[in-house]
Amino acid sequence: MHSWPLKISILQKPRFIPLRYRLIIMTSCMLILLLGTLALTLGFLQSRTIRGQIEERGLA
Q1: Tell me: the pLDDT tens digits for 34-55?
Q2: What is the DSSP string of 10-44?
Q3: pLDDT of 10-36, one tens digit each?
Q4: What is the C-alpha to C-alpha distance for residues 35 and 46, in angstroms, rounded to an integer?
Q5: Which of 14, 18, 12 is nearest to 26 (CA)?
Q6: Rounded to an integer, what distance in angstroms lies between the CA atom of residue 56 and that of residue 60?
Q7: Residues 32, 35, 38: CA angle, nearest 5 degrees
Q8: Confidence (pTM)
Q9: Could you tell me the pLDDT band of residue 1, with boundaries at 50, 70 and 90?
Q10: Which residues, 6 or more positions from 25, have their beta carbon under 8 angstroms from its beta carbon?
Q11: Contacts of 60 (CB under 8 A, 6+ apart)
């Protein structure tokens, strides 16, 4: 068996991530957030519109 010291540091300074990868990751996160917000908003508005039309027709 080898007996080298095991160096595991949680508070270690993070490795450098190149700028292009950071840009891709940040752009992807912002796009996911934007599209998720858009989907939730449109879903809410669409359900409200459908509910209103059903109530107008007297089916509810």
Answers
A1: 999 999 999 999 999 999 998 8
A2: TTPPPPP--HHHHHHHHHHHHHHHHHHHHHHHHHH
A3: 667 778 889 999 999 999 999 999 999
A4: 16
A5: 18
A6: 9
A7: 145
A8: 0.61
A9: low
A10: 17
A11: 51, 54
Match 């359900």 to its residue by tokens: 47
Kindly state the tokens that stand for 6. 């095991």
Burial code of 21-33, b = ≥16 C-beta within 10 A, e = fewer?
eeeeeeeeeeeee
Q: How is residue 44 written in tokens?
A: 């809410």
Looking at residue 40, its amino acid is L
- State what percent of residues in the chain have pLDDT above 90: 57
Residue 9, amino acid: S
